């Protein structure tokens, strides 16, 4: 079982959280100018890496706030969690 | 290679079954093939088999990074059905069902396909409306199925709990009599042997590390066993399709998740059909060996670890215990996970890619096993001709650009 460190609440059990997918996907600003390919890339295409992955998590049964985590998708080890808007840590950082 | 029959069985019995020939060769890879299939699971091996059998392409190889059938083919809960809602998927899965029905004879290999029926339970009024709609859609597509009441379910499965006072009461189900289970390892081995008989090279322990291309067309792959050239490459790697797509330089709308299953200790025959519940994420059948085979839902996060989280198992086991209180004291023997490649519309992606000569067959998500022969059938056509088969045309990668998604979350969901 995971223990996940919420940036606001500290270490909590994984069952309190839900994963909300890949982080740092910015909604395009001038959406009326987007081509179908650009829409598809924003809506559907995902990096889905094998290794370090930046993703959004929601502390659903806690403070109900979103934050970002840097997690390895093979070992499932979370190397860092950080608040929305903060600079993501580099991938090797513990 | 000899044909399996009662005579070969008797002949080999005389020599104490010590002289059976290997079911397929393990050749060294050649430098060049007419086509390569990356991924030696059921779908990849079926593709190779139908490429050789239906399209006469025998100078081909299947590259497998581990051992054949060691990925999701050997990790699923072996359920076969074709009761999908939309025409596109119903036609594809029904083609597969028809191939299943003659598969053991076709392959000369007993895949133990057992049409013991599949129940999909409904637990609330909306479930039942969806079930009625799906059954009607199935029947319009010539797929068998009917809606059954809790009493009918109880008559067929006396162990089930149809008490209406529980948290998720059973209000009814859809039943597809032609659905059932097959022996998953035998499917991989049967297709491997069948393809090998046509001269297809099955190369295990051979991981692809790079995809080479020139002027927008594939020329070959780099592998852990050296470079192999081919002008046509079919990629059938399930959970790792994003990794292969990145090697080729494009992105996929796929996220890989762990999906897990577990089996109990062997017990005497108690369940002679397959019972699935989308709502509570549990499905159960009994293997010929006697184990209860239980499938869970996917973990909510991306993962390549081939193992699932404990809370997901707990959730599934709780659902099974509510549906079958009699199983509360059955002990579980083994638990494992596979990596499923989930697409946004819960439908596969089969067809051409931005790179010429490179074809992808992925996105089967939580329910690819049932489609093994049909998937191989259409993908072989796609690889051989360079154009999609009529059955897989709607499942192109383009649909995420055009918006023609095929929303099968209802029939596919998680339960398979």
Write a structural description.
The complex is a heterodimer of chains A (94) and B (416). Chain A is mainly beta. Chain A has a single domain (3-26, 39-83), classed as Folate-binding superfamily (Folate-binding fold), CATH 3.30.2270.10. Chain A contains one helix and six strands. Chain A has a four-stranded antiparallel β-sheet, with no helix packed on it. In chain A, strands 1-2 form a two-stranded antiparallel ribbon. In chain A, a hairpin with a 7-residue loop joins strand 4 and strand 5. Chain A is globular, with a radius of gyration of 15 Å. The mean pLDDT of chain A is 92. Chain B is α/β, with parallel strands linked by helices and 416 residues long. Chain B has helices at 6-14, 42-55, 87-101, 103-107, 125-140, 150-156, 184-197, 241-248, 310-323, 372-385, 399-402; strands at residues 35-38, 60-63, 79-80, 118-122, 146-148, 172-176, 180-181, 201-203, 208-214, 217-223, 226-229, 232-235, 255-264, 274-277, 282-286, 292-298, 332-342, 349-352, 358-362. In chain B, helix 2 packs parallel to helix 7 and helix 2 (42-55) crosses helix 10.
How far apart lie the N and C ends of chain B? 36 Å
The major beta sheet of chain B can be summarized as:
8 strands, mixed
Measured as a percent range, the helix fraction of chain A is: under 10%
Count of the domains of chain A: 1
Main sheet specs of chain A:
4 strands, antiparallel
Biggest sheet of chain B, strands in spatial order? 5-6-4-14-15-16-13-17
Structural category of chain B is alpha/beta
Name of the CATH superfamily of chain A: Folate-binding superfamily
Give the strand order, joined by hyphens, for the main sheet of chain A: 3-4-5-6
Shape of chain A: globular
The tally of strands of chain B reads 19
Rounded mean pLDDT of chain B is 95
Largest protein interface, residues of each chain: A-B, 28 and 24 residues
Helical coverage of chain B, percent range: 25-40%
User: How does the overall form of chain B come out from the CA principal axes?
Assistant: globular
Distance between the termini of chain A: 19 Å
Order of helices and strands of chain B: HEHEEHHEHEHEEHEEEEEHEEEEHEEEHH
| Structural class by secondary-structure content of chain A | mainly beta
Mean pLDDT of chain A: 92
């Amino acid at each position: 079982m995971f223990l996940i460190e919420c940036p606001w609440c500290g270490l909590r059990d994984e069952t309190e959280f839900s994963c909300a997918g890949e982080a740092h996907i910015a909604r395009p600003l001038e959406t009326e100018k987007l081509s179908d390919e650009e829409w598809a890339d924003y809506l559907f295409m995902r990096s889905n890496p094998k290794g370090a992955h930046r993703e959004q998590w929601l502390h659903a049964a806690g403070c109900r706030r979103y934050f970002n985590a840097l997690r390895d998708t093979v070992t499932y080890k979370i190397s860092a969690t950080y608040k929305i808007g903060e600079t993501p840590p580099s991938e090797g950082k513990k | 290679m000899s044909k399996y029959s009662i005579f070969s069985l008797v002949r080999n019995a005389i020599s104490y079954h010590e002289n059976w020939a290997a079911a397929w060769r393990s050749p060294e890879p050649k430098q060049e093939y007419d086509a390569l299939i990356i991924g030696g699971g059921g779908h990849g091996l079926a593709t190779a088999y139908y490429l050789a059998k239906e399209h006469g392409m025998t100078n081909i190889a299947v590259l497998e990074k581990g051992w054949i059938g060691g990925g999701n083919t050997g990790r699923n809960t072996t359920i076969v059905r074709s009761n999908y809602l939309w025409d596109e998927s119903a036609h594809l899965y029904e083609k597969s069902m028809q191939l299943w029905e003659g598969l053991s004879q076709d392959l000369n290999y007993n895949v133990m396909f057992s049409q013991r029926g599949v129940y999909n339970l409904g637990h609330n009024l909306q479930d039942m409306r969806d079930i009625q709609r799906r059954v009607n859609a199935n029947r319009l597509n010539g797929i068998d199925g009917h809606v059954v009441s809790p009493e009918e379910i109880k008559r067929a499965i006396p162990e089930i709990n149809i008490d209406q006072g529980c948290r998720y009461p059973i209000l009814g189900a859809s039943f597809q009599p032609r659905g059932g289970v097959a022996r998953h390892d035998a499917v991989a081995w049967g297709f491997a042997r069948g393809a090998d008989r046509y001269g297809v090279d099955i190369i295990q322990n051979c991981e692809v590390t790079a995809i080479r291309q020139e002027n927008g067309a594939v020329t070959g792959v780099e592998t852990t066993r050296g470079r192999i050239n081919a002008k046509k490459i079919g990629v059938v790697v399930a959970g790792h399709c994003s990794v292969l797509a990145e090697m080729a330089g494009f992105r996929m709308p796929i996220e890989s998740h762990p999906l897990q299953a577990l089996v109990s200790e062997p017990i005497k025959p108690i369940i002679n059909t397959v019972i699935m519940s989308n709502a509570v994420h549990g499905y159960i059948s009994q293997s010929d060996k006697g184990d209860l085979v239980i499938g869970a839902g996917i973990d909510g996060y991306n993962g390549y670890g081939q193992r699932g989280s404990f809370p997901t198992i707990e959730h599934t086991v709780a659902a099974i215990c509510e549906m079958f209180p009699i199983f509360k004291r059955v002990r579980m023997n083994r638990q494992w996970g596979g990596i499923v490649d989930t697409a946004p519309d819960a439908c596969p992606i089969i067809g051409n890619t931005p790179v010429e000569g490179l074809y992808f067959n992925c996105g089967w998500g939580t329910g690819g096993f049932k489609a093994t022969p049909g998937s191989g059938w259409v993908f072989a056509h796609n690889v051989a001709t360079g154009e999609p088969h009529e059955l897989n045309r709607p499942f192109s990668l383009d649909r995420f650009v055009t918006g023609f998604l095929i929303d099968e979350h209802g029939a596919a969901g998680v339960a398979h």
